[in-house]
Amino acid sequence: MKKILLSLVLLLNIGCGFRPMFSGQDTDIYVYPISGINGIDLRNALWAKFGGQYGPDSEYTLKVQLSAPSNRYKALEQTGDATWQEVSLNAKYTLSHNGKVIASGTEKASESYTFVGYLVASNASYNNAVQNTIQVLAEKIGARAIVETHKYSSKATDKK
User: Fold this and answer.
1) Cα–Cα distance between 136 and 107 in angstroms, integer?
2) Is 26-159 a CATH 3.40.50.620 domain?
3) d(C-alpha 160, C-alpha 149), whole Å
């Protein structure tokens, strides 16, 4: 049954001509350094999204300000001990084309993690939640930047 379903899906995809809008395209976006260790991870994730590292002379530039992680309790036991926490990150970004701002905004991402009595397990859980949150921010900001660069370049092409 699985083989038949997989074959049907493959035939439909081949026949319809569907191709993701930005597949195989590298985007010439320079990402300015982002402060902090989480900023380094976010910048690396954005580079991966854009197809590589580009220099400051790129056609587009992206500036991101990343907040420090904030935590809040999500679940408490009857004793008052926390069992779940949520970590949140906010990122303000500005996308420019040759110095002219074409898009800006703020993205937020958060993830819950277990907070147990064992320090090593709690730290590992927290670190994983932060890394997952950074990946979500990179997806949100990266997708917006790619769409905006595509729209901007399409407008410039239409004007010619």
Assistant:
1) 10
2) no
3) 17
Domain boundaries, the chain: 26-159
Burial of 58-96, coded b for 16+ CB within 10 Å and e otherwise, reads bebbbbbebeebeeeeeeeeeeeebeebbbbbbbebebb
Q: Facing residues of 113 across strands?
A: 85
Q: Most distant CA pair in the chain: distance in Å?
A: 69
The pTM score is: 0.77
Judge contact between 86 and 112, C-beta under 8 A: yes
Of 64, 118, 108, give the one whose Cα is nearest residue 86: 108
Q: Print pLDDT tens along the chain (160 aa).
A: 555 555 555 555 555 554 455 544 557 899 999 999 999 999 999 999 888 888 888 889 999 999 999 988 777 677 767 678 899 999 999 999 988 999 999 999 999 888 777 778 888 889 999 999 999 999 999 999 999 998 887 776 656 5
